[in-house]
Amino acid sequence: MLRAYTTKNNTMKKLLLFLLMFSITSVFSQEKIYGDFYLFQSKKEVKKVFKNNKEKYQNITFAGQDFWMINKLMISSFNYQNDKLTSLKLFATQIGASNELQTKNVRALDKFFLERGFKELFRQTHWDTPVFFDNAQYGVVYHNEDSNTVINLTMRTEAQMNNIVTVGSVGNFTNNHTMIEIYPYSLFERQMKNVSS
């Protein structure tokens, strides 16, 4: 009876050790998207991380241009699927005051990423031309092999009236707002396979 209990006890210890190792491995094998944000993080955890590090994520700079994350009802940096984080967006804090300035902004960012060894995966024909930019396509897509993430440098339209930026169907629409979308490379690969199949 004692021997059976010891064997059962040893089996339980091995099982608990296995479960502990599995959970540790799962935590460390999460794919990082950006900063403290990981693929498939829960919405609750994302909100907590953002709230606790708001200053850090509202002061981001690339190529001398300022970006920030937002988590509002109408506009959010966080994309979810079934309440699990899949990608995030960084919004430029300054809006291109003219098509020429916007072109200059995106060209500077393109140079910034390429000089840091990011590999170009896709570039739309009008990636740097606000007037002809195709919002239905990616802008310029880079693979950051160091973090195994994909960056989509893109522009988006917003209505600008009386120096107040609004989203809607009224106003003068131009692609004057720069946005950087960040995905884990594995998720991007899966999306591309779905598109091509």
Describe this structure in words.
The structure is a single chain. The protein is globular and about 40 Å long. The chain is built from 5 helices and 11 strands; from the N terminus they run αββααββββαβββββα. By secondary structure, it is α+β, with helices and mostly antiparallel strands. The strands form 2 sheets. Strands 3, 4, 5, 6, 7, 8, 9, 10 and 11 form a 9-stranded antiparallel β-sheet that branches. The chain has a two-stranded antiparallel ribbon with strand order 1-2. Residues 14-29 and 160-171 have low confidence and may be disordered.
Q: SSE layout and pairings?
A:
Blueprint: H1 2-28, E1 32-34, E2 37-38, H2 43-52, H3 54-57, E3 60-62, E4 65-68, E5 78-81, E6 84-92, H4 99-115, E7 119-123, E8 140-144, E9 149-161, E10 164-166, E11 173-184, H5 185-196
Antiparallel strand pairs: 1-2, 3-4, 4-6, 5-6, 6-11, 7-8, 8-9, 9-10, 9-11
What would you report as the Rg, rounded to the nearest angstrom?
A: 22 Å
Order of helices and strands: HEEHHEEEEHEEEEEH
The count of DSSP E runs of length 2 or more, i.e. the number of strands, is 11
Class by alpha and beta content: alpha+beta
**What is the tally of helical segments?**
5
- Main sheet makeup: 9 strands, antiparallel
| Approximate helicity band | 25-40%
N- and C-termini, Cα separation:
60 Å
Question: Average pLDDT across residues?
Answer: 82
Percent range for β-strand residues: 25-35%
Stretches where pLDDT is under 50 for at least 5 consecutive residues are 14-29, 160-171
